[in-house]
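#lab-general

N.A. 3:47 PM
ok so I finally got the sequence cleaned up, no stray characters, all 176 residues accounted for. can someone with queue access submit it? mine expired

B.Y. 3:52 PM
send it over

N.A. 3:53 PM
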Amino acid sequence: TTDNSPIPTKPVFSQDLIATTSANIKIGGAADPKTTVQVTQNDRVLGTVVTKDDGSFTYDVALEKNDNIFTAVAVSETGKKSSVSLPYDVKYLTAQPKLDITSPKDGDKISSDQTTVTGKTDSGDSITINGRYVIVASDGSFSYPLNLNSGDNKIEVIATDPAGNKATKEINIQKL
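B.Y. 4:20 PM
back already:
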């Protein structure tokens, strides 16, 4: 007999989570209604789930440290497979981000009205200096001109990774 049944539509993930501090999450998406979806994590098949009447599916996963790349394939009742979904990447981050302040140094005495705060964090992290967001280059470096008050100046630098982990460093400098 000839199998004339259609090839299933490739599944689509419906997540917008890019990073988390949670070891276990639910991933989900959509495919053809009442279709078996095979879920793969980092090239390892996790298992299958059958889509609901509306085509939606969810799957509980345990994340591995750092990158977790998920793909899915829909399989029809007759065994026909869809093409592979677009990858969905979730980072599992539990450590504090890296944060180095290269300039100025704690205890520096500066005679000008402004100093440039420079440093480095992990690529993809955000930086605030005394509550102001600072542009972070693709390599994780940052530079910010900071106006100084006479006397003691406290500089607080906070790095935040995409999962919400934070690292904070404070330095104190003096404007002469």
